Amino acid sequence: MTNYRRMRVPGGSYFFTVNLALRGATHLTDHIDALRRAFAVTLRERPVRIDAIVVMPDHLHAVWTLPVGDSDYSTRWRLIKSRFVRETGLVAPRSRSKVAKAERGIWQRRFWEHTIRGEADFAAHVAYCWQNPAKHGFVERAEDWPYSSYHFRGGRGDGCEHPSYVDHRENFLYFNRFGSSASGPSRRFLSSP
Question: Are 14 and 73 in contact (CB under 8 A)?
């Protein structure tokens, strides 16, 4: 088995891309409520600040800041992905390897992560999240895409404690477990001591 080396900065900020196995599918937006619940349950158990997020039909991008001392983003993604699949019951064509591992074939097995290295890098990745629907031609303006944290910050790029695709009346506390401060914890970048 391949040993994937990932950068781990406890309390750090990260950019993620998580894809469905079948590019061009629309499962994420078709089943947005199931995705909301998968996030809510997982982040209730393992809090994280979502600084930016956009959910596209076949992939999503997110910028997360983990709690101080925590660098375990992989478990969070595994739980979100498995909860989504269990709730939706979706199954896709699978290789023998995926069948042997009891995978339903909906998600790509892994995800792409980038450790945020400073304020400019952070701002660039938040902007990338928000502009992704326009880049893919789904909307002309970022603010027109309904599954984006853009709506909570008005495109200012200063972070987001509760993404717009979540019913924040019910789930806000699960996404903002860092106290009452509107800004949450300070970000810790790779270059931080």
Answer: yes
Full-model pTM: 0.78
Q: Which domains does the chain have, with CATH numbers?
A: 13-175 (3.30.70.1290)
Taking CB atoms within 8 Å and a gap of at least 24, the contacts of 3-9 are 4/110, 6/74, 6/113, 7/113, 7/115, 7/190, 8/71, 9/71, 9/115, 9/188, 9/189, 9/190, 9/192
Catalytic entry in 147, 150, 165, 174: 147
Cβ contacts of residue 169 below 8 Å, gap of 6+? none
Give the span between the Cα atoms of 87 and 41, in whole angstroms: 12
147 is catalytic: yes
pLDDT in tens, 152-193: 665 444 443 333 333 333 333 333 332 223 334 455 555 444
Beta strands in 20-65 (DSSP E): 49-55, 59-65
